[in-house]
Amino acid sequence: MTATTASHSLPEEPLPESFRPEVAIVGLGYVGLPLAMTFADGGATVLGVDVDPSKPIDVREGRSWIEDVPSSDVAAHVEAGRFLATTDVSHIALCDAVIIAVPTPLNRNREPDLGMVEAATRSIAPYLQPGQLVVLESTTWPGTTREILEPLLANGAADGTKREVGVDFHLAYSPERVDPGNATWNTKNTPKVVGGMTDACTDKAVALYERAVDSVHRVSAPEAAELEKLFENIFRNVNIALVNELAMLCERMDIDVWEVIDAAATKPFGFMKFTPGPGLGGHCIPIDPFYLSWKAREYDFSTEFIELAGKINTNMPYHCVRLLRNALDAHGKAMRGARVLVIGVAYKKDITDYRESSAIKILELLQKRGVEVVYHDPFVPEIQAGHGVEPPAAPANISVELTPEELDRADAVMVLTDHSGIDWQHVLDSSPLVVDFRNVYAGTPRSNQLWKL
Ligand code: SAJ
Which CATH class is domain 23-220? Predict the structure, then answer.
């Protein structure tokens, strides 16, 4: 048994009497842990709160579970008495502010699932202290802070007394803008938008974040902050759909879409480059827009752009399978019985995350069409179930080595994620047929051996 597993069964160590946290962060995931480090870097004493009993142990032992957070940072802040974690939510009573950063997935009907936000809010309500500030960071529909969190906190006092927001406690919304793996933009240097239920709430939230991040942008209400976050990601989703639609048109017109986009990108103003691909992956871009379209229906409003973009982006895996079929056909091969090597299952380059990845959908579609699929992804040794992922049937759920034999055995290679560390020329030299969906062969013209989106 590993040390961590062994200590799972041990009762959680009590917080030291000397530990006086100022900020509690509920949810220590890819948002919460970097946020805790950023506040601790700013000199605040931070208490992490999580339902996972291994988190308090990992923290005490100076271990990070988030790729962007070095364990040495965790260890240093624990050593300095600036960071500990607990599963006991009652300790938030010690803090001046509580930040909630728990997941907001979509349910099977693609509707917002605020279950974890509500559970976190209910859990802290009995321990809320006079004057304390609560901030929600989880991505959600406009109105969540006012319609869901405010009533739970106002009516959640242990003694049943009603609390008034802006007087007895403060409440605000500030969207997370964490981009996992981004070496340039991090929690500290990415501007933070903040909107409170009252001006006093906004003032408190601005003062809180100014202790940790470089710049804070205040808006007049939580709804403006909730909506701007969705708008940021809908902007990406819609523009990616636009270039995906352009790619499908260019195929019919026999025009190289990559050449067209590169040419458009020479315009130094009024244009922003997006690139087509096998579809949309990740836990933000494909999901966030549906928080708005769901809420908009309450106002008898149909968000046409979001629906259309969703249709186009959702169709891309099917378009890629059709393109592969045409390429195999040009080589006298049928889909059924063909062996196809997929390179890259992570939803974008140089990360390990394959949640909502189009590549997983493509593997499923290929297996349904009788294709013998194998995949290689240096960042994903095994595709495991969870987070809505259905792994392909074994042994296709295990990454294979990119050997000359593996490449030669394949009737076709599909490039679905443009990881940096792959020798793409070696792949092209060793494979009878490559279908490139990420323009890794930008300098090489299309041919019967090299097909492109
Ligand atoms: N994609 C395309 N074409 C593009 C850009 C992306 O097909 O031109 C695909 C990617 O391959 C991926 C999906 O879209 O499958 C999402 O890619 P992304 O680059 O948007 O990366 P994410 O999902 O990690 O988005 C995050 C978001 N961050 C937050 O929500 C806090 C997003 O707001 C950021 O703009 C984005 O990172 C970023 O810029 O890296």
Answer: alpha beta
